[in-house]
Amino acid sequence: MGESIKVLLVDDHQVVRRGLRTFLEVQDDIEVVGEAADGAEGVARAEELRPDVVLMDVKMPGMDGIDALRRLRELDNPARVLIVTSFTEQRTVVPALRAGAAGYVYKDVDPDALASAIRSVHAGHILLQPEVAGALLSQEEAGSGQGRGGSLTEREREVLGLIADGRSNREIARALVLSEKTVKTHVSNILMKLDLADRTQAALWAVRHGVTG
User: Fold this and answer.
1) Binning pLDDT at 50, 70 and 90, where does residue 141 land?
2) How far, rounded to the nearest angstrom, does the alpha carbon of residue 116 sit from its chain's CA centroid?
3) Across residues 131-150, what is the average pLDDT?
């Protein structure tokens, strides 16, 4: 078995953190390495502990989860952030995804589903439910990346299609018989050519323009 997935819990309710920890401590491949009670502390702990995945609440006093996400992006922290929220409104979830979250689950999520979500985002996948993906697409600026798809090479279009399918770099490398380093280079070129910030935006662009794996 490989190394455990290191997880940081960020939620202002101690009872929620305790419940999440209880869920996760029975998983052989997941290790809770720390906790934080608000966004500012979460950012500091993420920088200190360098977790693989951060479970982040949205509504917290002081720095909320969305501002914490933006700060982690500014710091170029590599942790994948999974939003854990009781808020189902798109106006809460969509800004979190735009700020860099890899996906979201609700606080009443089944323990096994939570563990699966952590493994999924750690592997590089993006967790988007159809209605939220639709909301993100509808909010995209009409000119974002428009007309730039022609600058992609055929290989880059293949990689983009697999990103849209939710594949990780490792899975893309295996599917296209490439090294992971080469895939990372293709992903960087795709984001640069389409003027996109991250894989989530790339996946949405691919859906909008009919690029599939």
Assistant:
1) very low
2) 14
3) 54
- Are 37 and 80 in contact by the 8 Å Cβ rule? The answer is no
Separation CA 102–CA 25 (nearest Å)? 22
CB contact at 8 A, 154 and 190: no
At 200, is the secondary structure helix, strand, or coil? helix
Instruction: Using the Cα atoms of residue 6, residue 8, residue 96 and residue 107 in order, give the sign of their dihedral.
Output: positive
Q: Tokens for 50? A: 């360098």
Instruction: Give the per-residue pLDDT at 127.
Output: 79
Residue 197 has pLDDT above 80, yes or no: no
Residue 70 CA to residue 8 CA, distance in Å, equals 17
Residue 115 has pLDDT above 80, yes or no: yes
What are residue 36's DSSP bridge partners? 10
Average pLDDT along the chain? 84
Strands 80-85 and 30-36 turn out to be: unpaired
CA dist 160 and 204 (Å) reads 10
Query: Is residue 98 a contact partner of residue 136, using CB atoms and an 8 Å limit?
Result: yes
Which of helix, strand or coil describes residue 48? helix
Q: How far apart are CA 80 and CA 95, in angstroms?
A: 16
Check residue 127 and report its DSSP letter.
Answer: B
* Per-residue pLDDT at 133: 60
Mean pLDDT of 89-105: 78
